[in-house]
Amino acid sequence: MPENIFNVRVYGICIYQNNILVTDELRYGHRITKFPGGGLQFGEGAIECLKRECREEFGQEVDVTEHFYTTDFFQPSAFNSKQQVISIYYFITIPEPEQIPGAKKQFDFPEENEGAQIFRWIPLKDLNENNFTFPIERKVSQLLIR
Fold this sequence. Notes:
The chain has 146 residues and is an alpha+beta fold. It has helices spanning 46-58, 135-145; strands spanning 5-13, 15-16, 19-27, 30-34, 37-39, 63-70, 83-93, 117-123. The chain has a single domain (5-145), classed as Nucleoside Triphosphate Pyrophosphohydrolase, CATH 3.90.79.10. The chain contains two helices and eight strands. The chain is globular, with a radius of gyration of 15 Å.
C-alpha cells in the first residue's frame, strides 16, 4: 500500500421540512455521525460517486443540485494517518425522503455490528458542530449555520 495518499470522500446535504439528514455508523469499532456519502472509487466522478453511495445507503436516486464545500485544510484520516482526506459536499434532493428509515436517537442501531448504519433527521434549529464526529463535518455544519 502506498504511503501518503489522498482519500477522497463525497457527501450529500439534504434539507427537508427544516431538518437535515445525517447517518450514524459503526466503522472500525468507532461510532461516527456524518452526512450520507462515502469514498470515491477510481474511475468515478464526484457526482457519480455521491449518486452511487445514496443508492447503496438508502436506495434512492438523488438529484445533486449544487456544490457546497470542498475541504480547504489538511486533514489526516482518523483511521490511517498516512492518508489525507479531501471531502466534497453537495446539496441533494431525495425524491422520497419520508421513505428513509430514520432513528429517533443517535446510534439506535437494530444490531450493533461492524458496518451498522442508521439515518436521522436533525432539526435545523438544533444543528451544531457537536452533532458530528469528524473535523470536516464540523466545519461544514458551522458553514450551514451561518
